[in-house]
Amino acid sequence: AQTVTQSQPEMSVQEAETVTLSCTYDTSENNYYLFWYKQPPSRQMILVIRQEAYKQQNATENRFSVNFQKAAKSFSLKISDSQLGDTAMYFCAFIPPRAGNMLTFGGGTRLMVKP
Amino acid sequence: NAGVTQTPKFQVLKTGQSMTLQCAQDMNHEYMSWYRQDPGMGLRLIHYSVGAGITDQGEVPNGYNVSRSTTEDFPLRLLSAAPSQTSVYFCASSSTGRSGNTIYFGEGSWLTVV
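YS: structure for the whole thing
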């Protein structure tokens, strides 16, 4: 069974600064996918970024990037130039190969961006 | 496109009542699933389906039934509601078994059991 751990229940950052959210996971699989989802107060689940385990290059999406350390089973999310609209819950999620949409989620990190 | 549509959005039930949360998708996706999200926690998988007529249990299936008679619909039934089932429920769909495919989530159904 896979587990996903987010060790930071809450974090805050000043607007325009950079923040890093941590995620570790445990799996015996070699190929898998990792995701970061954003959940604003509306509870909508918004995909932020996706990483394929067999790709060594870290994924980036505009102001969002990841630091994927496969050997350490670590998958952190860096948000650059933080904006007020980034305030939300952030969930790290794991999915093994051929698992459709059966995600395993971490417990979440509540991020507050302060003006 | 409507994407993934969940109804109702809000519901209050009394302990022991039964109800069905509806989920429909218009993207012809084979894979559908139901998650629950308790306060301060991540989503946990209740049941999933890999196609019409095929369902299976996820991490927290007790107290819930599902069926998949069509590709489009995947209803979640609460047999006898309990306060422990107070949660936000999400339906999700994706096109194939490839894990890298985009997963589409509904907007959630907020259920309170009193």
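YS: worth flagging: Chain B touches chain A through 32 residues (CB under 8 Å).
IM: good catch. Also The radius of gyration of chain B is 13 Å.
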